[in-house]
Amino acid sequence: MKSVATLLPILGTLPSVLAWGDLGHETVAYIATNFVTADTKTFCQNILGDTSTSYLANVATWADSYRYTDAGAYSYPYHFIDAKDDPPSSCGVDFDRDCTDAGCNVQAISNYTARIQDTSLSSEQTQEALKFIVHFVGDITQPLHDENLEVGGNDIDVTFNGTSTNLHHIWDTNMPEEYTGGYSLTDAKSFASTLTTRIKSGEYESEKASWISGIDINDAVTTAMDWASDANAYVCSTVIPNGVSAVENVDLDGAYYKSALPVIELQIAKGGYRLAAWLNLIATGSTGF
Question: pTM of the full predicted structure?
């Protein structure tokens, strides 16, 4: 397995990859906050030095800013895995094929989970590892962060509500923000509350156990691959079910948005629930569910 120490810096100009944008990542974090155990809450708050109720949401987007710094450039490829599949006819992720020597989200989740548990690291290094995990577990649920085609959709030009953008961006940002009407922490907390209710007693209650089926902190690569494969399948079924030509240079704020929204809500809910289970495992050895 590739290690954090040997991952290579990424040089040059690279396309923007911001899974879920601020709103989505903070919503994932707030959902997780609603499901972590009391011991996990204390564990995370102590590492982060933040006893507020937004202790996870406050760091949920740190990794997106950090990768654009000189110090954090090495972490750029950790936000995605470029599945070299053939959507919409065939979707699938292969770790050996798709995770490069520079790293990927699957391998990063494995490495930074181990680093949180490594008592030889400094408090600063442990905090960094936790911030990465909060972010990457959100990243991996966005379908286009598990897809190589057209740089994960960044090179597929579309419009949304008359604004020129790209397919990746509308999944990250435009469509979630269209639903909530904003992107503040308050909006994220409200969105998280809605999805938390669905998980606890609504339409997601009967399926939430399947979201963490097979979860194994001692085999983080296999667990993260399950999550990546789950999200990648939506590239074929929902993101481009009729191919690139059906969405390229098209305004996607109508029927496309209506078909995509349930998947966006579901994937963000999964991200939050999985993050809680993963943090519970790190802190207590049990998912807590």
Answer: 0.94
